[in-house]
Amino acid sequence: MENSPRNTVRPYLITKKLVPENQETPIHFQNGDIVNEKLFFRRNHFHYPKFTSSFYLLPIEGFVYTPKVFSLQEIYSFPAKAIRLVLECSGNKRELFEPNVFGEQWGKGAMSQGIWKGVSLRSLLQYTGLLDTAKEIVFEGYDYGARSDSNQFHHFSRSLPIEKALDPDTILDYEYNHHPLPFKHGFPLRLIVPGWYAMASVKWIKKMIVIDQEFKGPFQAVDYVYYPNTENDHQKTLVTSIHVNSTIQSPLNMQTLNTGVYEINGIAWTGTGQITTVEISMDEGLTWHTCELVSSSEKYAWVRWKYIWDAHKKGEYTIKSKATDSFGNIQPLDPIWNRKGYGYNAIDSIKVKIE
């Protein structure tokens, strides 16, 4: 008789769209601090680009003293830096906004975490220098296509202010989890901007252009902007730093359980500072209990947390989680609604039934 395989069930990406490919990480089944590249969420605006990586060159031009073109071999030869960090799509949890907003209806898994390794952008720019009038650096990706709002073709391009570009932890990445960066995640070079939502981490970098003014590309001046009003663009602001947030991973929403003792666990993360506290409520927020943080609070990584719950009374329960970071940012009861659905970070909430 054949032996039955045990513990061989593996989660899969959760498909939101196939063309272009947009898929979520099965975040509720991620028990460690590293997400395998096959389960790393995929966010694309266009088809995957086509180019010959064996002849890849990276030009840096514009308001620099010495324009240069770098080969991959040169970039590999520079001192490297590895950083464990969260990449979170700014549309993560968009489907939870009320009223609903248009856009990719991400659940709670448009985020992943791993170890990124590359060269500090600051180190690379030492070879070109920056003119005093330099204000921003534009990163243009190889991916391009027509936008639905104009039918005009654009490369996916975004900029960073010089101050953020020169942060020693902003890197041009070529490895993920100690392996070459996968093509679907930006090979051969991807910008990694710690602490900012993932739209800033441009994939398949084609070139870098230093400019002396504010970048007005559509993926920065139109998309990835907080619009607090439905009818007009008043008080709009750019999407940048990740908001403090948490997600309950276990138990699952609408799960039925028997009476007993359970470990409630999940993750918490922020773009500013570190997570200092995670609290949990079993009575819809009337009372809160402090959770145990079970992983170290690295600067850009999520923190895993847990709470032991003695569920001895039958009934329906609403469980909520609330995180606080070292800058005093606390998850709000309600999200800050905006018409493109970015930056959802309301207190997380699930329901369970004890029988």
Keyword list:
five-stranded antiparallel β-sheet, Immunoglobulin-like, five-stranded mixed β-sheet, 355 residues, globular, mainly beta, Sulfite Oxidase, Chain A, domain 2, disordered N terminus
CATH domain class name of the largest domain? Alpha Beta
Low-confidence stretches: 1-5
Specify the CATH architecture of the largest domain. Answer: Alpha-Beta Complex
For CATH, the homologous superfamily of the largest domain is named as Oxidoreductase, molybdopterin-binding domain
Question: How would you describe this structure to a colleague?
Answer:
The protein has a five-stranded mixed β-sheet. Strands 5, 6, 9, 10 and 11 form a five-stranded antiparallel β-sheet that branches. The protein has helices spanning 72-77, 121-125, 162-165, 218-221; strands at residues 14-17, 22-24, 57-62, 68-71, 80-88, 111-120, 136-146, 153-161, 171-176, 179-180, 190-192, 205-211, 225-226, 237-238, 245-250, 255-257, 260-269, 275-281, 289-290, 292-293, 303-311, 315-325, 348-354. The chain folds into two domains: 14-238, Oxidoreductase, molybdopterin-binding domain (Sulfite Oxidase, Chain A, domain 2, Alpha-Beta Complex); 245-354, Immunoglobulin-like (Sandwich), CATH 2.60.40.650. Residues 1-5 have low confidence and may be disordered. The protein is globular. It is built from four helices and 23 strands. Helices cover 5% and strands 38% of the residues. The chain starts with 13 loop residues before the first strand and ends with a strand. With 355 residues, the chain is mostly beta strands.
